[in-house]
């Protein structure tokens, strides 16, 4: 088990200073770190992706190299072996842009055509586990709800195109299901009209948005709940001229309570709105943006990539599964091979099943990353057999087949998250990213009093002649 040093990403949409769980968690693991109160701490990256690679604390070596060195099962010797996922902690203050991620095949094609905007040839499924109340837009609403909102808000039909909307309604009333290719094609047409009207007639969009928000002020609701109206008002305030402000009328507004978890694969339109979460994503940084961003919007790719599934928000929820023999572990296993998430909760409550110590974690035949988010205690692994004191903010890489157990905890509760996958991650060896201006931290090793200088923190990368900030979840809009 190796302790890791991981990157914090500062994006404009992140929560500021001590309001951000990203900042607080990082500070808990680094006593020497002082939180900048006006700095937006958006994401903590725990993985091997070249845009924010974790390093082994004791050696400063990149985790991908450490895995390649220690993985005895690989016949082919590689310099670096990547994990197929990045686990993140996210703290979101402002809505992120409306976006979609490509499938593996689409990603490979986009990367070949436009490597600057699509730096990876890999897909990016996403899972969000709510740490606080967490809100997002995800997937098209059921056809019936879209039709209801078209009726209540004529402005929606105006930007989607009257004739195309009538055709959508006619097909639905004729009995075509929302899974039929005919209705999906009709949805694709109205969605495409809406994206291009922003380019062709921006003043018309601004005018229709004013009418829409006047109507909302007069308590017209269609099938919107009050929470969605609140989200729309915030979006309009941030993006008064953006056609993306219509999106809650045709996308599901999901509100996750702490402990709830959702997942969506490629081809699903989505936007994070607010809150804090543990996120698991594929080891990729490809995003196609639709709206609500000053960044590159690729309408053509977007229209082609979307799957136009219309469904209820429940479709995206992930079950919390108990694990036989491990009462302190809850598993979130979405329908994808790139990651599975374990929530580990050990308490001293004598009435709780998760109070039995020592508490063993499932032994996995693959590498995993674990972050302690609450509490402290002693942990032991089957490689060193030496108890280690661990506390909130500590992040570990656990080797395949290494057995880990918590021997004791101090306080009432210890809470951790662990992500793993049996897949091997993508090959990033040809990725043209060169870290420049790296920030470093000096850390003192708790166990050996050794001092290490570790490159960490925000970094920029150069690609060919262009210098640009690497941003993952697209940037938000401020
Ligand atoms: Zn995304």
Automatic annotation (TrEMBL):
Broad enzyme group: isomerase
Keyword Cell membrane attached: no
E.C. numbers: 5.3.1.8
Keyword Metal-binding: yes
InterPro entries recorded: Man6P_Isoase-1, Mannose-6-P_Isomerase, PMI_typeI_cat, PMI_typeI_hel, RmlC-like_jellyroll, RmlC_Cupin_sf
Binding-site residues, Zn(2+): 99, 101, 126, 270
Cofactor binding note: Binds 1 zinc ion per subunit.
Sequence similarity: Belongs to the mannose-6-phosphate isomerase type 1 family.
Name of protein: mannose-6-phosphate isomerase
């Amino acid at each position: 088990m190796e302790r890791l040093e991981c990157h914090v990403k500062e994006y404009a949409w992140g929560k500021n200073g001590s309001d951000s769980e990203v900042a607080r968690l990082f500070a808990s693991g680094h006593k020497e770190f002082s939180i900048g109160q006006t700095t937006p701490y958006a994401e903590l990256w725990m993985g091997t992706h070249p845009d924010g690679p974790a390093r082994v604390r004791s050696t400063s070596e990149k985790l991908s190299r450490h895995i390649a060195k220690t993985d005895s099962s690989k016949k082919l010797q590689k310099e670096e072996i990547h994990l197929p996922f990045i686990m993140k902690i996210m703290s979101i203050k402002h809505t992120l842009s409306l976006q979609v991620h490509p499938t593996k095949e689409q990603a490979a094609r986009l990367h070949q055509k436009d490597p600057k905007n699509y730096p990876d040839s890999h897909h990016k499924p996403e899972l969000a586990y709510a740490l606080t109340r967490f809100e997002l837009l995800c997937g098209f609403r059921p056809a019936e709800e879209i039709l209801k909102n078209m009726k209540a808000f004529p402005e929606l039909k105006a930007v989607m195109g009257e004739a195309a909307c009538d055709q959508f309604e006619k097909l639905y009333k004729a009995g075509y299901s929302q899974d039929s290719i005919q209705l999906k094609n009709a949805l694709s047409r109205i969605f495409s009209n809406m994206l291009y009207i922003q380019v062709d007639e921006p003043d018309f969009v601004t005018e229709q948005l004013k009418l829409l928000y006047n109507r909302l002020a007069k308590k017209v609701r269609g099938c919107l709940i009050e929470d969605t109206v609140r989200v729309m008002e915030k979006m309009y305030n941030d993006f008064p001229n953006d056609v993306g402000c219509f999106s809650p009328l045709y996308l599901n507004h999901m509100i996750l309570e702490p402990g709830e978890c959702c997942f969506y694969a490629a081809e699903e339109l989505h936007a994070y709105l607010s809150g804090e979460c543990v996120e698991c994503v594929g080891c990729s940084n490809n995003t196609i943006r639709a709206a609500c961003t000053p960044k590159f919007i690729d309408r053509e790719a977007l229209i082609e990539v979307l799957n136009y599934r219309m469904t209820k928000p429940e479709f995206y929820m992930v079950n919390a599964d108990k694990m036989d023999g491990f009462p302190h572990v809850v598993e979130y296993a979405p329908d994808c091979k790139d990651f599975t998430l374990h929530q580990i909760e050990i308490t001293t409550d004598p009435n709780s099943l998760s109070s039995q110590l020592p508490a063993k974690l499932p032994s996995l035949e693959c590498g995993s990353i674990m972050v302690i988010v609450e509490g402290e205690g002693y942990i032991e692994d089957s490689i060193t057999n030496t108890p280690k004191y661990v506390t909130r903010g500590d992040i570990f890489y656990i080797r395949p087949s290494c057995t880990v157990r918590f021997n004791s905890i101090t306080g009432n509760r210890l809470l951790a998250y662990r992500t793993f996958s049996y897949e091997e991650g993508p090959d990033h060896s040809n990725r043209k990213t060169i870290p420049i201006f790296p920030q470093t931290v000096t850390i003192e090793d708790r166990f050996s009093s050794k001092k290490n200088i570790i490159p960490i923190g925000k970094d920029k990368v150069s690609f060919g002649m262009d210098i640009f900030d690497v941003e993952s979840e697209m940037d938000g809009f401020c």
